[in-house]
Amino acid sequence: MGRRKKGLDIHGWIALDKPPEMTSTDAVARVRRLFNANKAGHSGTLDPLATGMLPIALGEATKTVPWLMESEKIYRFGIVWGVSTDTQDAEGREIARSDVRPDPAAAAVALAEFVGEKDQTPPIYSAVKVDGARAYDLARDGEIPELKPRPVVLHEAKVLESSSVVRLDCEIRCGKGYYIRALARDLAAVLGAEGHVINLRRLSVGPFCEENAISLDALIDLVHKDAAQRALLPLEIALDDIPALTIKGEEALSLRQGRPIVLLPHQVESLRSKMRPRTVSGEDASRAALAMCGGKAVALGEMRAGRLTPTRIFYPNQEN
């Protein structure tokens, strides 16, 4: 006898506006319990002190998490000058102090130098693994983990207006794996100052933005009103920039059975014109396409030699 599922087959995304003082793991657990969903996950950790966009996948939407992980993100944050901490945020222990208060114009010039693909060393208090252990666990045990620089991309960075000389407010748009706390650490070093991050807020993750975000309190209120489905976004939203192909019922059946389908020449040309270089989970996904039937995702596939071969199948029972 097969193992019985715990929870309901709920499929879709919740664009959660994560509150402060809550870990991303706890946020996922709360949302999963609210929906009584049998499966849940998130698309990128937010620090406990951080707020903002934390897309949470339920059910079949968890299969699209690796694709959303590659999306661009936008953050807004402040850097308080004068004190550096071991965590590079307000939660940490003071490790250095300075009277230097960088001029905002000079800080803006220095910040611009970080734009582009650069090597960045993650903070020691981060989820990066070192010999199988999380860096933050080693740091909490008194060890100083040796973290290697790794390539990251900062697409855009700007200094916002501020009336305070002790605080620099910034907004950035970045790629996967970018650490704001590391940016603040490195920017302070360039400016000969000490500083740490405050009021870190993630404004968007790919197609998920503040306009479609919902607070935990508002979500709880909807659950009490038996209207939680109103907050549920379709799983396809995480795949909005992948070339889509509309297929028929018999083709959907073939894909769900793991069999490739033959594409017509005009379908090949249409998909090819929309494809772009991309990497997902370290693998080349430049030939990826999304097969849709009746407005629902059937499968993610790879287009080669005039055929679409399924690589990730979505089950037919997506209605909740």
Explain what you see.
The chain folds into three domains: 12-69 and 210-236, Pseudouridine synthase (2-Layer Sandwich); 73-205, Pseudouridine synthase (2-Layer Sandwich); 242-313, PUA domain (Archaeosine Trna-guanine Transglycosylase, Chain: A, domain 4, Roll). Helices cover 22% and strands 33% of the residues. The chain is an alpha+beta fold and 320 residues long. The model has no long low-confidence stretch (mean pLDDT 91). Strand 12 and strand 13 form a beta hairpin. Strands 1, 2, 3, 4, 7, 10, 11, 12, 13 and 14 form a ten-stranded mixed sheet that branches. The chain has a five-stranded mixed sheet with strand order 15-19-20-21-16, with helices on one face. It has a two-stranded antiparallel ribbon with strand order 5-6.
Looking at CATH, the homologous superfamily of the largest domain is Pseudouridine synthase
**Biggest β-sheet description:** 10 strands, mixed
Helix content bin: 10-25%
> Number of helical runs?
8
Distance from N terminus to C terminus (CA atoms, Å) equals: 25 Å
CATH topology of the largest domain: Pseudouridine synthase
CATH class label of the largest domain: Alpha Beta
Estimate nothing, just give the exact number of structural domains.
Answer: 3
Quick one: how many beta strands? 21
Radius of gyration: 22 Å
Query: What is the overall pLDDT average?
Result: 91
